[in-house]
Amino acid sequence: MKSIAKWAFAVLIAGVILSFPIRGEAAEAVNIYTFEDLKSMKDNPSGDYVLKNDIDCLGEEWVPFDFSGTLDGEGHGLLNLNITEVSEGVRTTYDGNMKTYDTVFSGLFGCIENGTVKNLGLYGINVDVNIEKDCFVGTIAGYMDGGTIDNCIIEGNASLHVKGAMFGVGGIVGFGNGKIVNTKAETTLVNVDLDASTRDEEFLGGAYAAGYIDLDNDDINLKGYVSDHGYVHSGGMVGMYGLYPAGFEYAGYITNVRVSQDSKIFFFEDNTNRRAYCDPVNGEVLNWTYAFSGCSAPDKSIFRNETNDYSKDLYPHGDCGTDEASFTTEVIDGTHETFGYTLHTCPTDGYSYKDSYTLKVHDLGEGEEIIAPTLDSMGLEKKVCKTCGAEVYTSIDKLTPTPTPSPEVKEESREGEDGPTGSSVTFVGSIGSILLIVLLIAAVVITIIAFRVILKSGKKHGRRK
Q1: Residue 129: beta bridge partners?
Q2: For the whole model, what pTM was predicted?
Q3: Fold of 30-316
């Protein structure tokens, strides 16, 4: 009987344990499948995210926000992302004279602080900000503090039209510190100063505009256009290299960075007290506190293209100007491995640019429902390419509400009804809870009976003695 009691007690304990909610493990990374998923990152900007799908962002509105988590693209791309806003965050930047400025930022993220973006492609990204504030823009981030960008690919544009005293444009990041490694950036950068009365500080760089960001094993292909009435600081890699933040002591590095031989910066500096820092590596270096090795860049005479004509701002339109009809157009189709795009070329000078990227082309099999749609939310379906095995996720439309029948129809539908009633369905849905309660009651009853039997048995043995 003692064994029965032990068994009953064990059942009781198990029932009690099962009645409590089970605590989960540490939060796992959140999968991103759609543009709506991407936007929801703003709700938890310190979280970890994994991009599971190529996403075409054409026609969507993206408002940048500050990010301190991890975004792993897993080799996937965001296509045709268009950004015209700045994030809410304001940070302090400073120029070569250590003068400080309250500055706003724009890019995929406004600011990255101790966050990581890796294995991500940005194809056809267009950051185009017009603002009357001190501002820095980049494709991935306008500002970075202690962040890391690793193994990313950028093909796109970043432009800033600004009235301010401190501003800049970077091919990857605008301003800050951290590191950019194993990353390729093919960008067209435009910086236009709209206030001729202010002797501003302007920065532009193929990797970043200004700051103290480490670079290693990066490839830069840059076309830069600067129209400034203050002081120009532009470079194939970095516009101005200097310690940031103030008092920060760290032996940084710029190693194995390659600026393509056809990279150029076109600029004017409408300023009688001219400096005109423009170099294929770093426009201006404030602190030689870094290792520099294994880098390559075009000759300065080819890279630096200065004009003294201040009558019109500089833009990357070539001889064809802004007339789209003057360009020849070629549509490049996507494949299993590459995205498609439209190539526009000016026939007189060879200037070209890409836009209208399209998703990779796959031979998809039958779909598998991953998330069922509801009346309030869309579902998700997975399909696998028969040729290359790539997984492609597509949205399933929300369910359509069933019209409410009239009272007469309801009464007719009740006649001869054999299916389960609403109460029985509710009961079936509660079977799990009922079984658990029954299990607990049974365990308690068995335990009481077992102890009573043991107690009686003990009394009998006592009388025999």
Answers
A1: 160
A2: 0.81
A3: Pectate Lyase C-like (2.160.20)
